[in-house]
Amino acid sequence: MRKTIKAADFAQDFRLGMGDQAMMGKYHLTEEQLERVFGELWRRGLISDDEIEDRLDVTDSQVTLVFSSAKEDTKELD
Predict the structure, then answer these.
(1) C-alpha 14: how far from chain center
(2) What is the pLDDT of residue 58?
(3) What integer is the mean pLDDT of 54-59?
(4) 1 CB neighbour count, 10 Å cutoff
C-alpha cells in the first residue's frame, strides 16, 4: 500500500531539523521508506545536496558527542 505524504510538509519538517525517528513516527514510515522519501525530494529538487550534507553533519556530530560522553562516563567508573 502506497502512502501519500505532502512533499512541502515533509520538506519543512526536514528543514526545521526534525530527527529521523520523529519523522518516521509522524509520517508512519520505516527507515527504508524514509530514505526513499529523502531521495525522491532530492530528485524533485525540493531539498538540496547541501541540506542533506548539513543533516548528515549534525547526525555525525551527535554520534561523536554520544561516544565522547560515554567514554568519559566509563572513565569515571574505573
Answers:
(1) 7
(2) 58
(3) 66
(4) 2
- Taking a C-beta distance cutoff of 8 angstroms, is the pair 34, 24 a contact? yes
In angstroms, the CA 47 to CA 39 distance is 9
- Show the CA angle centred on residue 41, arms to residues 28 and 26, nearest 5°: 20
Q: What is the DSSP secondary structure assignment for residue 30, as one 8-state letter?
A: -
Please name the residue ranges forming H helices in 16-48.
20-27, 31-43
Residue 54 and residue 33: Cα distance in Å, rounded? 21
- In a 13 Å sphere around the CA of 13, the CA atoms on its Cβ side amount to 19
Has this prediction a pTM greater than 0.70? no
Q: CA–CA separation, 35 vs 41, rounded Å?
A: 10
**How many residues does this entry show for the chain?**
78
